[in-house]
Design a protein that fits this description.
Strand order of the largest sheet: 1-3-2
Helix content: 55-70%
Strand content: 5-15%
Number of domains: 2
Distance between the termini: 54 Å
Largest sheet: 3 strands, antiparallel
Length: about 180
């Protein structure tokens, strides 16, 4: 599969962006390739197109499947697995945020809750330190609650909400520190 210069640029940048977000470069590049592809691709197609080892492709495809960003499909007369990526950018965003919350925020909340409970009983912990633990816990719980409120909104509603961003900030008053507390 020959890539246009624009496709190459997109895929390379997606890989660079992925590394900045803690995602393996090859995983991100394969995701970008599948996102741009106009047909399902086999692991061999991917390896040949991106000039990477087949074993690396297999591991990367498993990672992308675990994130629910791609799925395998089958074509009549072909026993090989073919892969397709989610195509709706809102769905991709929703899946990534949901997975990051599940993998990163939820375990952190569990530990912070334990620390808050344990800290209340820990006579050697300074009250200011416990207050900071509780502040982080409260902040992450607020983010989680906000995410739960918004995650089921239709994309059109989210788009209107995002476009209102500056107007909402001005309406609420950007210097109002009480809104943060």
């Amino acid at each position: 599969m020959a890539l246009s210069p624009t496709e190459q640029k997109f895929i390379l940048h997606w890989g660079e962006m992925g590394t900045r977000w803690g995602v393996n470069r090859t995983v991100a590049q394969i995701h970008a390739l599948l996102f741009l592809a106009n047909r399902p691709l086999t692991a061999e197609d991917i390896a040949d197109t991106l000039v990477i080892a087949r074993s690396n492709v297999s591991n990367s495809l498993k990672e992308l499947q675990s994130w629910n960003l791609i799925r395998s499909t089958h074509l009549m007369g072909d026993r090989r697995d073919h892969f397709v990526a989610l195509q709706d950018v809102w769905e991709i965003f929703r899946v990534i945020v949901e997975e990051r919350k599940r993998r990163e925020i939820d375990p952190t909340l569990s530990v912070l809750r334990e620390c808050a409970i344990d800290g209340g009983k820990d006579g050697s912990l300074e009250p200011a330190s416990l207050a900071r633990i509780n502040e982080v816990l409260g902040f992450l719980e607020m983010l989680g609650t906000s995410y739960d409120d918004y995650k089921h909104l239709p994309p059109a509603t989210m788009l209107r909400f995002l476009k209102m961003g500056g107007k909402v900030a001005r309406f609420l008053g950007s210097d109002d520190q009480d809104a943060i507390s």
